[in-house]
Design goal:
Layout (H helix, E strand, L loop, with lengths): L1 E5 L4 H12 L3 E6 L7 H10 L4 E4 L5 H10 L4 E4 L6 H6 L1 H21 L4 E7 L22 H19 L4 E7 L1 E3 L18 H9 L6 E4 L11 E2 L1 E3 H17 L2 E7 L5 E2 H12 L5 E4 L14 H7 L7 H14 L7
Parallel strand pairs: 1-2, 1-4, 2-3, 4-5, 5-6, 6-11, 7-10, 8-13
Antiparallel strand pairs: 9-12
This protein binds uridine-diphosphate-N-acetylglucosamine (UD1).
Length: 337
């Protein structure tokens, strides 16, 4: 059973690659290396003992993709490749639509041409936009309010249309909440370029001394302590969710969008406190103004994933904190060290 993994050297894709290899799946990775590193391939190999076949390039590159599809007979595709910086997406909308939406269209077209009809796609809870209610269920209305979110929602719409037109297709869009943590080896983790946008890598970079303090974006929200609340889940739980989604595709047809989260919300200050408690490391912080475009609080109703393919997040908040720090402290400069 061969799986094409696009973006397989990125943060989430690489953790999936390890899970898939350890579940005896054969994988082929396509990654542009724009936001990743070849060192990730070495890490996957040292953890699993297997070096996956790798092609460097973009999913929109039909010539490359033709070469890949000609060389391998795939059973399914897990599509992680995509840009994910919300701020950048607002400044460079066409770049995001080209890469995330047009790229997905090329990929699905190639799949159709080669008779590969099972697809798992990295979507995001950001497709829901301002909550009408929390926890978000999959039937919450879709109303993203930035280009990145639109690019995810548009790809979901394409997948749905294709599944309606092609009755032999099955596809799942996994709507991730906030992935954190790292592989337990400490040799695979999140390695954002430059100053991180997201909370967890910011915390670990303060802890390791690379950044002086964490800015907490707002403490006057209507939440437990005034700071923003999110549903953080361990990246290995998330990775395993893709394997379970793939087994649903084996036995079912049609399109589904499914939340992957723990179902629990944690505030920014609760995250800082648990990081300090679990790891015995101080994280200095100060309160800053709210960040533009931030929502106060949201978390997942994750019951559909349980019902459809028996997935639930098993790792605890302490596991997330321990593994994030294990990775960052073993690799203070990410894959450069
Ligand atoms: C952000 C994106 C979302 C994307 C996700 C994963 C926005 C508005 N949303 O989600 O679309 O899918 O990243 O890439 O950018 N925080 C701080 N200080 C920091 C960083 C974050 O206080 O230095 C707070 C935020 O205000 C928020 C929480 O931590 O309350 C989580 O932030 P973050 O990790 O950026 O995730 P999201 O905003 O949920």
């Amino acid at each position: 059973m061969k799986i094409l993994v696009t973006g397989g050297l990125g943060y989430i894709g690489s953790h999936f690659a390890v899970c898939a290899i350890q579940a005896s799946k054969e994988i082929v990775i396509v990654d542009s290396l724009e936001n990743s590193s070849l060192k990730v391939l070495d890490a996957i190999e040292s953890i699993t003992g297997t070096r996956p076949v790798f092609y460097q390039g973009k999913v929109q590159d039909r010539e490359l993709m033709t070469q890949v599809f000609n060389a391998h007979s795939f059973d399914s595709v897990v599509h992680f490749a995509g840009y994910k910086a919300v701020g950048e997406s607002t400044k460079e909308p066409l770049m995001y639509y080209q890469n995330n939406v047009a790229g997905s269209a090329v990929l699905m077209d190639m799949m159709k041409e080669y008779g590969v009809n099972k697809l798992v796609f990295s979507s995001s809870a950001t497709v829901y936009g301002v909550p009408e209610f929390v926890p978000y269920t999959e039937s919450h209305r879709i109303a993203p309010f930035n280009v990145y979110g639109h690019s995810k929602a548009m790809t979901e719409v394409m997948m749905q249309g294709l599944c309606e037109a092609q009755p032999d297709w099955s596809a799942i869009a996994l709507r991730y909440f906030n992935p954190v943590g790292a592989h337990e080896s400490g040799d695979l983790g999140e390695d954002p370029k430059g100053i991180p946008n997201n909370l967890m890598p910011f915390i670990t970079k303060v802890a390791v001394g690379e950044l002086a303090e964490l800015g907490v974006f707002g403490d006057d929200y209507d939440t437990v302590d005034g700071t923003g609340v999110r549903d953080y889940l361990h990246v290995m739980d998330l990775a395993e969710g893709h394997l379970k989604a793939l087994s649903w595709l084996d036995a079912n047809k049609g399109f589904k969008a499914v939340n992957l989260g723990t179902g629990n919300g944690m505030s920014v200050l609760q995250m800082v406190e648990s990081f300090e408690r679990v790891n015995g490391v101080k994280v200095p912080y100060s309160i800053k103004p709210r960040r533009d475009g931030d929502l106060p609080a949201f978390w997942a109703d994750a019951s559909l994933a349980k019902e459809l393919f028996d997935w639930q997040a098993n790792r605890t908040l302490d596991d997330m904190m321990r593994d994030s720090w294990h990775w960052q402290s073993r690799h203070p400069r990410g894959y450069q060290s």
